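Incident review: delayed structure delivery

Summary: a single-chain prediction request sat in the queue longer than the usual turnaround. Root cause was a stuck worker, restarted by the on-call engineer. No data loss occurred. The affected request and its eventual output are reproduced below so the record is complete for anyone auditing the incident later.

Affected input:
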Amino acid sequence: MAGEGGIKMKKNPGEGVTVIALGLRGMPNVPGGVEVHASELYPRLQALGARVIVMGRAPYRPTGSPVQWRGVTVRWIASPRLQGIEAVVHTFLGVLYAAARRPDILHIHAVGPSLMVPLAKLLGLKVVVTHHGQDYMREKWNGPARAVLRLGERLGMSFADELIVISKGLLDLARHKYGRQATLIPNGVSEPKRLTTRVLLEKHGLTPQRYVIQVSRLVPEKRQLDLIKAFKAAGLPGWKLLLVGGAQGSQRYADLVREQIAGDDSIVSTGFLTPPEVQELLMHAGIFALPSSHEGLPISLLEAMKMGTPVVASDIPANREMCLDESSYFQVGDTLALAWRLHELAEITAEERAHIGKRLIESCARYDWDIIAKSTLEVMERAAGLPTQLTWRDTTPARPQ
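Output delivered after worker restart:
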């Protein structure tokens, strides 16, 4: 591959597929589900022989963020930090950059950035789109914004050379609404590092296995207000509720959350934390809760399951795909049912907790990032018309009989 200052991503004989990635804020240590997905996927593609450039949005660049990370080049370019237009503007600039560099594949994530797929095709690029979720269903968007996101989905689904979807629901959408074949490759989860640190527990006055945790942005569809109400109704003596995540584009909602917890020492909001910090808190949590009204395929839930932490989640299709025990689900917005389940899980014995944890860990075996990377690479090679040495393996989780 040519150096960063070069014009084209030239390949040496035998070198793998060249990829430019768009549709994410950046990596590493940039919050967001797509960003976590990218930070796990692209270094693995690089290790498999691909050559990857990730296009990040300059306003989100963490202090001291490297240009090369685990072999992947991360190039930060300007984008306006304005809700509704930053993704489109950044993707437009990224497509022009890709047109100059001529990678084998332009990999676009999410439906908003997919608005630029027709432009990429007009410029002669091979495009793979990964559909992470129906973002127009998020509560924060108004009517015009939802219409634009629906258009992005239609353009991406219609014009991409290859489609990847992360859930069965999106696979059905591609087939039945758009008449396209897509490859189902879900999100994954890494083997957790067993950390011994308890710095954050001490900072927030947390007792191991005696706090409920939610890890997500402070946005309406994550329904932190429901969880706060349920936690208060559950009445768990000696327990705390820990809300991990910052506000991104929904400041009014974040202010409502902070108003609800003001003066309550049993509820803590940490803001954005780095992945190692989140892992420390997940490892010692008593219960993981995800009351969302909309998800793609939640990585935070997978991470909690991989830790063996008892979980409770809303019964939306994306959470249902995790195939949890039926008792782990509750109807979206039913705070009484959520409160009751929190109370039940807070009362389980150590033996019951170990049994639940073992089942959850075993169920995560299907969500293997190494398999996901190999499957993604084959899709890219197919789209680029390159020979592949891999045999694609269906990573779809089996439903219980």
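Verification: Residues 381 and 387 are 7 Å apart (CA to CA).
Action items: add queue-age alerting; document worker restart procedure.
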